[in-house]
Amino acid sequence: MMEAKDNGKKGISRRDALKKMGLFITGAAAFGAHAALTSCDGRKKKRIIFYFTATGNSLYLARQLADNDTELLSIPQMMKLDRHDFEADEIGIVYPIYGHMPPNMVRNFIRLARLTAAYKFAVLTYGMLDFNAAELWDGISQKNGTKFDYINTVMMVDNWLPNFDMAEQIKMNKHIPEQLEKVKSDIGRQRHWVKPANEQARRAHDGFVSFARLDPEVGFLMRSEKYFRITDACVDCAICTEVCPRGNYELTSAGVKTEGDCDFCFACIHNCPQKAIQFVNLPGDPLLAHGEVNPKARYRNEHVSLWSIKNANRQ
Ligand SMILES: Cc1cc2nc3c(=O)[nH]c(=O)nc-3n(C[C@H](O)[C@H](O)[C@H](O)COP(=O)(O)O)c2cc1C
Ligand code: SF4
Ligand code: SF4
User: Fold this and answer.
1) Count of alpha carbons within 13 Å of 58, Cβ hemisphere only?
2) Which residues of the chain have a pLDDT value below 50?
3) What angle, 0 to 180 degrees and rounded to 10, lies between the N-to-C axes of helices 57-64 and 306-313?
4) CATH topology of domain 222-313
5) pLDDT one-digit tens code per residue, 227-279
6) What pLDDT does residue 44 have?
7) Which of 35, 72, 237, 271 is the most buried (most CB within 10 A)?
8) Ligand 1 mean position, distance from CA 152 (Å)
């Protein structure tokens, strides 16, 4: 895989940074235009891929795992439509891990879903540490009656604002094309495998859950009015009302208001063009006691448009 050369300057452009990370891919590769899947009897195989995304990493990955005949279905849209029965030759799911766990909405989706397919795979995106994320999904999905044959993780930009500066994250080379090729090849040959976890990873996850005061059966389920505030920089563009998978934002005569159960996905905060959505100051909160690292830096995957995020999450 070709990598962009350092331009010798101290600061590098976003485009160069993305090139270094392997995120700037042009042409067919960017859209996953690989050959259509065929079964041994020559019939075209039908693949469905479900996704949940806030800043585009998981949608980008889902697109890369799709061919021209794949149905890409947004989990927030399926939940909105009350659609739970699906049948295909292969069914996949792509989601971002939150505290190594699935987003609460993805948990609810798998609780209600009836997925019929000869081969099922899950690919989880993460930023820095995935610990026992694959094993957790294996347990949660099996408990809800669905067994996935293949579960793997792919490291991408970490959009967790309390600990990471997005300006720094986008400069890191996380070898995404190489990870993607491996996952594509595994899925292409219907590999049966779940990324293993060790005792240390399990302990680290348990430690995080108790430190963050989360219920391991629920994961992140916050209240948006407790964690987010809208500053005077807001220009009433209404983007937040469309990118939130819970529909928690509303334009009112008194300005933008947010309220409701919240996956803590950060679609609102990252996609606000004015950076007008900020974390509330919460000195006693285990996750936000120190606010965020860089309130001036926000992130959306280079290959995914705002329109796509709205389309995925609009309620
Ligand atoms: C609430 C929350 C919790 C997160 N927890 C983890 C984590 O435990 N480990 C990790 O490596 N990344 C974590 N991340 C980062 C995301 O999993 C990662 O950036 C993901 O690729 C974002 O996907 P998206 O762009 O499709 O929304 C977290 C992000 C959020 C918003
Ligand atoms: S996205 Fe930002 S600027 Fe636009 S309405 Fe929402 S808070 Fe205001
Ligand atoms: S309020 Fe923000 S963080 Fe919460 S679910 Fe909506 S978009 Fe995600």
Assistant:
1) 35
2) 1-36
3) 90
4) Alpha-Beta Plaits (3.30.70)
5) 999 999 999 999 999 999 999 999 999 999 999 999 999 999 999 999 999 99
6) 73
7) 271
8) 15
Place of tokens 């983007």: 239
Q: Which atom of ligand 2 is nearest to the CA of 241?
A: 6
The whole-number pLDDT of residue 9 equals 34
Helical segments of 81-175, H only: 104-112, 133-143, 166-169
| Residue written as token pair 């049966």 | 192
Contact between residue 23 and residue 303 where contact means Cβ atoms under 8 Å apart: yes
- Surface-to-core class of residue 271, CB atoms within 10 Å of its CB (0-12 exposed, 13-18 middle, 19+ buried): buried
- Domains 14-205 and 222-313 fall in the same CATH topology: no
Nearest of 77, 44, 45, 46 to residue 59 by alpha carbon: 77
Structure tokens that stand for 225 in this block = 């009015």
The domain made up of 14-205 has a fold known as: Rossmann fold (3.40.50)
Question: For ligand 1, is residue 76 a contact (CB within 6 Å)?
Answer: no
Global pTM reads 0.89
Does ligand 1 come within 6 angstroms of the Cβ of 266? yes
Domain boundaries, the chain: 14-205, 222-313
